[in-house]
Task: structure prediction
Amino acid sequence: MLHITKVPNSPHFVEGVVNLRGKVIPVIDLRAKLGLPKQNNDKNTRIIVVEVSGTILGFIVDEVSEVLRISSDITEPPPPLVSGINSDFITAVGKLKDKLLILLDLNKIIGAEDLAKLKL
Result:
């Protein structure tokens, strides 16, 4: 985990900003954004950096076991059982060997309104 600098009056899901290679990047607490209970950071906590609608963001996640590219032919729509408040954020389920992967739609998690709030 990088040192995160708090930003006053930021939305509840924004942990702050980090300086990554000279760029200031907003850091989103993915748990807060998805409505999951707060969890203390530990040795497995990571910040993953992604581009959403042309904006570079960091997401705090519980753990990263590996980073990989998967083909769309191993994905399928989420089953009807995957329902609840945040099921709109799930774009597909991937099957990879003996693992099931839940693929999130970051454009739905961080919409245009949220991106406007993040302009620093």
The chain has one domain: 14-117. The CA atoms of residues 74 and 93 lie 8 Å apart. The radius of gyration is 15 Å.
